[in-house]
Structure formats: structure tokens, C-alpha cells
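Follow-up to my post from last week.
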Amino acid sequence: NAGVMQNPRHLVRRRGQEARLRCSPMKGHSHVYWYRQLPEEGLKFMVYLQKENIIDESGMPKERFSAEFPKEGPSILRIQQVVRGDSAAYFCASSPYGGLGAFFGQGTRLTVV
Amino acid sequence: AQSVTQLDSQVPVFEEAPVELRCNYSSSVSVYLFWYVQYPNQGLQLLLKYLSGSTLVKGINGFEAEFNKSQTSFHLRKPSVHISDTAEYFCAVRSSGGATNKLIFGTGTLLAVQP
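User reply:
Got it. Predicted complex:
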């Protein structure tokens, strides 16, 4: 049973470009969470999704950021018109229910140049 | 709302010595508590969690933590550390009820084990 798979592991984008981060949850998991880790900081919650639904997006910046978890395929975190401040590690986690001890992926490290 | 405080940003310790990483939380509702470990350039791995029941929780790699409700603490301990325990350790909390399952993380403690 493969773990939570995130790709790409490293992503470099120029300012103004779009970044797409993908997350495939563990088999049987229908809950997905996205977190952002800025340098020298802990993880900050961004968004919580179940299949085809956004449950809690209280941590998402109001502009340029969006997330989806379609019926088929991975969850996508999309950042439009990236800026230097978006440089961070983005982690996805999944759980079968309730979020108790969710399993984390290895993260996507986004660098904006 | 919940918050987590990890007062020690870095804890140096010699190999085979005991260690305690401190975690205090704040919440107006009942919570679940977690400790995660992050090795360099890796994702987070769950060490242990407290949901209910016994306040002493045992996890992987010889770690344990004790939930103290009166002191709102959930300190992580290991009686004898190894070089391989060098990593960043994060304490996290989430409410035990409600529709959202988001985790609130502390800022992390770097455990630096020296030979």
C-alpha cells in the first residue's frame, strides 16, 4: 500500500507563472489536507477537502490559491501568478476519516525565482 | 481556537542521554494531541497520539509522551537517544469535535544528538 504521493518533489517557477502541486492520497483515503511550511516555521493548515468538496479553506490565501479533489484523480493545489513569498514546502496529508493521525506525503518544495 | 507552543527551538543532547521535548497547548475545547517527526527533506511521520484513556502514550522508536490536562502539556520523552533521532519534532493539536479536522502545529524543536 503506497503512501501519500506528492509530485513533483521540487518545483521551480519564475515570478508570475503558475504552480500546480499534485497529491495522491493513500488507497481508501477520501480526506485530503494541504499544509504549507515556510522556512524556519511549523506547518500551517491551508485547506481540507473530501472528494469533490472543500470542507475547510480557512487557511487559504484569498487570492491566487485554489484547491480541488475531483472524483477521479489526485488532489491539486494551484497557485497562480506566483511570488517569491510563495516559496515553501507544501505538504499533503490524507486520512480515511476524521483526520486522526493523518499520513503525510514527502512534500513539494516550491522555489520562486 | 487552539494553539501550540514549543518553547525550545533546539535541544542538543549527547547520545544515550535522556531527552524531553516540551509542548504546551491552549484550547477551549477537548483536544487530540500528536507528535510528528520530520527528517531532513522528508515528510512528517506520526510518532504517537493521544485521543483518550491512559495519559501515558507510547509511540514508535522508543518515544513516549504524557498528557497533563491540568498543565495543558504533552511533553515527549525518550530515555536514551541515538544519533539517528536527530530530526525536527512537531507537536500538534486538533479539536476532538467539529467538522474540520485540521491540525494546529507548533513551530518545532530540532533535536540534535551529538556523539
